[in-house]
Amino acid sequence: MSIAIPSELITALRGAKHVVFLTGAGVSAESGIATFRDAMTGLWERYSAEQLANADAFRRDRELVWGWYEWRRMQVMKAEPNAAHRAIAAIASKVPRVDVVTQNVDDLHERAGSDKVLHLHGRLNRPFCFACGHPHTLSAGIPNEPEGGRRLAPPQCERCGGYVRPGVVWFGEMLPKSQWDAAVEACEACDVLFSVGTSSLVQPAAGLPLLAARRRAMVVQVNPNPTSLDGIAQINLVGAAGVIMPALVDATW
Ligand code: APR
């Protein structure tokens, strides 16, 4: 099935000096990484991501929370970037400035060739001490079989002996300031903003396309499902990012 890319989008992209991609879990879905609001499986089927992704959950049951994140880190390490990650990386050579702003904690954009990715919600591979904040170096290789839902004791901090926590931003926590400020600057300066594979439910990231729209950038959404951005995006490309993004590159350049 061929995807119809609107001609106004092709024209805008050919003339664009600066494009921003704001991505969410949906961009990694075709790499086999479950999105946040998909139902969970295994030991975690009794929980939602929101229930595990917060500091209180870690205080209450750190082995459950660390085990869940290590299972996710293992999934990411076994996964490969998909056609959407690759298309986004390829667009960097077609447009003078491209910024990738992601809510994802995986490294699939980087592995597809995007550099200087802004990670608004942290990274799975950058854990740090829950007590003192000291960064923790993970051992090389894929984590030891947390597959199937195993509790795992987190490592302890080499500096203070505290427990190491995942390097992600949990609900109720501040976003990393430098990444957020850079994302706001990019969204306010771009000509075209793509919101790819995000439910647009989680603030403050969900507000970024509005900053771009207010500055008269073209806002484009890529998502198979409706979201609250539908009424704001000038163009809604309905479908899987791994199909739409390569079709967009082919149609434009
Ligand atoms: N291509 C594009 N979009 C897809 C695909 C696909 N192949 N598959 C699913 N989607 C869309 C879904 O329709 C949904 O709108 O991806 C979106 C995923 O939504 P969420 O699971 O809510 O993920 P996200 O928007 O990234 O969540 C934001 O919430 O839990 C927190 O910190 C976590 O960063 C996360 C934030």
Automatic annotation (TrEMBL):
<feature type="binding site">
    <location>
        <position position="132"/>
    </location>
    <ligand>
        <name>Zn(2+)</name>
    </ligand>
</feature>
<dbReference type="InterPro" id="IPR029035">
    <property type="entry name" value="DHS-like_NAD/FAD-binding_dom"/>
</dbReference>
<dbReference type="InterPro" id="IPR026591">
    <property type="entry name" value="Sirtuin_cat_small_dom_sf"/>
</dbReference>
<feature type="binding site">
    <location>
        <begin position="223"/>
        <end position="225"/>
    </location>
    <ligand>
        <name>NAD(+)</name>
    </ligand>
</feature>
<dbReference type="InterPro" id="IPR003000">
    <property type="entry name" value="Sirtuin"/>
</dbReference>
<protein>
    <recommendedName>
        <fullName>NAD-dependent protein deacylase</fullName>
        <ecNumber>2.3.1.286</ecNumber>
    </recommendedName>
</protein>
<dbReference type="InterPro" id="IPR027546">
    <property type="entry name" value="Sirtuin_class_III"/>
</dbReference>
<feature type="binding site">
    <location>
        <position position="157"/>
    </location>
    <ligand>
        <name>Zn(2+)</name>
    </ligand>
</feature>
<dbReference type="Pfam" id="PF02146">
    <property type="entry name" value="SIR2"/>
</dbReference>
<comment type="function">
    <text>NAD-dependent lysine deacetylase and desuccinylase that specifically removes acetyl and succinyl groups on target proteins. Modulates the activities of several proteins which are inactive in their acylated form.</text>
</comment>
<feature type="binding site">
    <location>
        <position position="72"/>
    </location>
    <ligand>
        <name>substrate</name>
    </ligand>
</feature>
<feature type="binding site">
    <location>
        <begin position="103"/>
        <end position="106"/>
    </location>
    <ligand>
        <name>NAD(+)</name>
    </ligand>
</feature>
<feature type="domain" description="Deacetylase sirtuin-type">
    <location>
        <begin position="1"/>
        <end position="253"/>
    </location>
</feature>
<feature type="binding site">
    <location>
        <position position="129"/>
    </location>
    <ligand>
        <name>Zn(2+)</name>
    </ligand>
</feature>
<keyword id="KW-0963">Cytoplasm</keyword>
<dbReference type="InterPro" id="IPR050134">
    <property type="entry name" value="NAD-dep_sirtuin_deacylases"/>
</dbReference>
<keyword id="KW-0862">Zinc</keyword>
<keyword id="KW-0479">Metal-binding</keyword>
<feature type="binding site">
    <location>
        <begin position="197"/>
        <end position="199"/>
    </location>
    <ligand>
        <name>NAD(+)</name>
    </ligand>
</feature>
<feature type="active site" description="Proton acceptor">
    <location>
        <position position="121"/>
    </location>
</feature>
<comment type="similarity">
    <text>Belongs to the sirtuin family. Class III subfamily.</text>
</comment>
<dbReference type="InterPro" id="IPR026590">
    <property type="entry name" value="Ssirtuin_cat_dom"/>
</dbReference>
<feature type="binding site">
    <location>
        <position position="160"/>
    </location>
    <ligand>
        <name>Zn(2+)</name>
    </ligand>
</feature>
<feature type="binding site">
    <location>
        <position position="241"/>
    </location>
    <ligand>
        <name>NAD(+)</name>
    </ligand>
</feature>
<keyword id="KW-0808">Transferase</keyword>
<feature type="binding site">
    <location>
        <position position="69"/>
    </location>
    <ligand>
        <name>substrate</name>
    </ligand>
</feature>
<keyword id="KW-0520">NAD</keyword>
